Amino acid sequence: xxxxxxxxxxxxxxxxxxxxxxxxxxxxxxxxxxxxxxxxxxxxxxxxxxxxxxxxxxxxxxxxxxxxxxxxxxxxxxxxxxxxxxxxxxxxxxxxxxxxxxxxxxxxxxxxxxxxxxxxxxxxxxxxxxxxxxxxxxxxxxxxxxxxxxxxxxxxxxxxxxxxxxxxxxxxxxxxxxxxxxxxxxxxxxxxxx
Length: 194
Description:
It is a single chain. This protein has 5 helices and 7 strands, in the order ββαββαβαβαβα. It has one domain (6-192): 3-Layer(aba) Sandwich (Rossmann fold). It is globular, with a radius of gyration of 15 Å. α3 links the parallel β5 and β6. By secondary structure, the protein is of the alpha/beta class.
């Protein structure tokens, strides 16, 4: 998709604050600093539209980005960041659960994992949870520029095995915000789920 118009419409912490215009939504989930904002910036072809940070845990609300007045990207707070209080983690969990389990406009979830590492327990739990709710999932292995393409199959097989990947209900792609590898394939998945 050629993106010319993007607007950060709102940040929300509850259903009462979600957009009401009925556009389809694609949520981006993953642990802190896995690259959700970088993926967003690459997809919309902007360098710093979605704020990236070297400090994990910066996103603390559901951030709705209107893309071409056709759909929303919903940037979800990262999980697994140890310096966030237990109370705050619970609040994030409740906010994410409310959104994902009740939002009719949600067409799919892009679940980001770091291509270089085994999925965390939180990554596995999120994948299982999304799968349980029959939500279309695209697993995106970020930072793929850090591994050799000749090893993609090895890393993909490992990630899928760790997640308990179900190829009948999920898709998998490698992605790099540095090289833009996988950008078009992610857009194809998004378009197919609008």
